[in-house]
Amino acid sequence: MITFLGLCVENFIQTVKYILGKNVKLNSIISRAAMISYDSLPIALSIVFIAAVVIALQVSKQFLMSGAESYVGGFLVVALVRELAPGFAALAISARAGTAISAEIANMKVTSQVDALKTLKVDPIGYYFAPRIIAGAFTVPFVVILAELFGVLGGMIISYFTIGLHPNRYMYSVWEWLNTRDIYISILKGFVFGIIIPLICATQGYKTTGGAKGVGISTTKAAIKSTVFLLMADLIITFIFYVS
After folding, report:
1. Residues 6 or more apart from 11 whose CB is under 8 A from it?
2. Where are the domains of the chain?
3. How far is CA 146 from CA 52, 96, 213, in A?
4. Is 216 exposed, middle or buried (0-12, 13-18, 19+ CB in 10 A)?
5. pLDDT tens per residue across span 200-239
6. Can you tell me the distance from the alpha carbon of 187 to that of 206, in angstroms, rounded to the nearest whole number?
7. pLDDT at 20 over 80
8. 189 Cβ neighbours under 8 A, 6+ residues apart
9. Is 154 exposed, middle or buried (0-12, 13-18, 19+ CB in 10 A)?
10. Residue 94: CB partners within 8 Å, gap ≥ 6?
11. Which residue of 56, 68, 102, 150 has the lowest C-beta tally within 10 Å?
12. What is the distance, to the nearest Å, from the Cα of residue 81 to the centroid of all Cα atoms in its chain?
């Protein structure tokens, strides 16, 4: 895993050099952005929405019993913005788009398309990695923000139907507990996750060998490794901003 992380850092540095050389085309970034974030939007929003509904179901009656039902919205928005929305959205994108990135690049590697680029004196790392990393970095934060909104909406709906909490009281506690700093940190998490997902998955796909069987193995490894590195990054960011 340490060796793989070193390879990812090396590929990232090479990608940054490629980007600074102004070799990336806008059309390529837009198409990758649609594949990474837009196509993953339904599953990401659905997961966060359901997670928010489940949490609201778990806590609303407990809050009602203690006379603190007005704080359901505040409790839920803190959990969503700080952790649930960025984490679940990133994991959904990794499962949907990250594996596709790995499979796509792995297929190019085993069919010698990478070697063809080298003969044309085109840097394959920059060519394959740069559009995907740029697209992920700038679009995943928007998915995170939408996921937070959907999660708050889900909590409001279920709180109304389970304990009769009026939407005005729910939203009042949301605004009372919501911190601008938490929103900024969630956007930062989305930005970092948007870099990690294509970087890890593309690196795994690029080191594929062994034909069609190798493509399947790389896709599986990409899903596992991206999940591990996302959780590690989440832990580091949370420790820096909320513990240290």
Report:
1. 125, 129, 199, 202, 203, 206
2. 25-239
3. 13, 17, 37
4. middle
5. 999 999 888 877 788 888 999 999 999 999 999 999 999 9
6. 29
7. yes
8. 86, 87, 90, 144, 233, 234, 237
9. buried
10. 197, 201, 223, 226, 227, 230
11. 68
12. 14
Cα–Cα distance measured from residue 221 to residue 209, given in angstroms and rounded to the nearest whole number: 13
Token reading at 86: 């960025």
Number of residues in the chain: 244
Q: What is the DSSP string of 50-99?
A: HHHHHHHHHHHHHHHHTT-GGGHHHHHHHHIIIIIHHHHHHHHHIIIIIH
Is 55:79 a contact under the CB 8 Å cutoff? yes
Q: Which two tokens stand for residue 149?
A: 């909104």
Q: How far apart are CA 6 and CA 167, in angstroms?
A: 49
CA diameter of the chain: 71
Q: Classify 122 as helix, strand or coil.
A: coil
Instruction: Look up residue 97 and give its two tokens.
Output: 């788009």
Cα gap 127→190, rounded to integer Å: 23
Cα–Cα distance, 40 to 45 (Å, whole number) = 9
φ/ψ bin of 22: left (φ > 0), alpha (ψ from -120 to 50), beta (otherwise): left
One-letter amino acid for residue 113 of the chain: Q
SS3 breakdown of the chain: % helix, strand, coil, rounded to 5? 90, 0, 10
On the question of pLDDT at 138 being above 90, the answer is yes
pTM: 0.92
Question: Distance (Å, rounded) from C-alpha 182 to C-alpha 154?
Answer: 20
Contact between 163 and 61 under an 8 Å Cβ cutoff? The reply is yes
